[in-house]
Amino acid sequence: MIATQLPLRDVHLPPAPGWWPPALGWWLVLAVIAVLLAGYGLVWARRRRRQRRWAELFDRQMRETTAGAAQLAAASGLLRRAARRVEPQAVLLQGEDWLRFLDGQQGTAFSTGDGRVLLEGGFRPTVDAALAARACALARRRFLQLMEQGR
Predict the structure, then answer these.
(1) Residue among 99, 102, 114 at smallest CA distance from 149
(2) Confidence category of residue 19, pLDDT binned at 50, 70, 90
(3) How far is CA 110 from the centre of its chain?
(4) C-alpha span between 46 and 148 (Å, rounded)
(5) Over the stretch 92-116, which tens digit does the pLDDT of each residue have?
(6) Measured between alpha carbons, how far is residue 81 from residues 9, 10, 22, 78, 129 in Å?
(7) What is the pTM assigned to this prediction?
(8) Which of 27, 47, 80, 146 is the most buried (most CB within 10 A)?
(9) Would you call the peptide bond into 125 cis, given omega within 30 degrees of 0 as the criterion?
């Protein structure tokens, strides 16, 4: 046959591969992402459970004591225990130094605010119930922060 008489046709490319199933590399990327998300979820759930346990410990101590001075003394004791986890020498602090330690980096809620009653409130015969409640709420927040720092 003569070359001009051959039945030649244009070159046809095969169709592009479909997106499913993905290549092995994409499966590996998805697996790594799934493992990372599961790990993050486990860490988050564990931290949340630990924070709930600490909050329950504080709340139980507050429920077991009578209102006023006994609650302030219990809150102060729990703060001392939590402070020992962060800095072992913190339990030796007294007076203004202790309040400044409790203030931390957040402000002056203990040294000049409602938390100041924690110094001598546990030794008073009577304490204003509203002031004690505000001081205990402040102590609860700081207790949870200290426990998280010291883990």
Answers:
(1) 102
(2) confident
(3) 22
(4) 12
(5) 889 889 999 998 887 888 888 888 8
(6) 87, 84, 55, 5, 24
(7) 0.76
(8) 146
(9) no
